[in-house]
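Bench notes, bay 3.
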Amino acid sequence: MLTDEYRYKILKELQQDPDISQRELAKRLDISLGKANFCLKALIEKGLIKAENFKNSINKMGYLYLLTPKGIEEKVSLTQRFLQRKLKEHEALEKEIEQLRQEVKT
């Protein structure tokens, strides 16, 4: 299953580096090459990205991964949800740190 977190991270990487290889994407996300391939196929099927062969590439296996308008909208939505989740995690950590500081003082 393709989680929101991986969907967000993949769309972010592809937007920043559309000609990234699947191998490099897997390395950056610390996932297997097979999982990267699976995720890209799922995003293509959902219409969030499209893959085009490089026209003048020596490496004919090279693709250009482009976010579709639907993919851009999805990335914005995922970014907002990801940010909210991380802010909640941050607040919880701040509370936990403060409690630990209080324990150390006593």
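Next record in the batch:
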Amino acid sequence: MTLDEYLKKHELSDAEFARQSGINLRKIVGDWRRGTRRPGAENMRKILVFTSGRVTPNDFILSKDMIQRYLGQ
């Protein structure tokens, strides 16, 4: 599950997610959602813990679209 999918499913804004998860920069959450930046190790840990493992570091490596493109699907 991507961070974007998780936030939409739980109806959380970037700011609310940042506040609740202990991430200091609200703007950076939007960058993560869009895939323009990846979280560092400490923020990945916070995301993993906050989402109870539903969003993992692997979810930031390749998007579903990229995986499908690589697999020719």
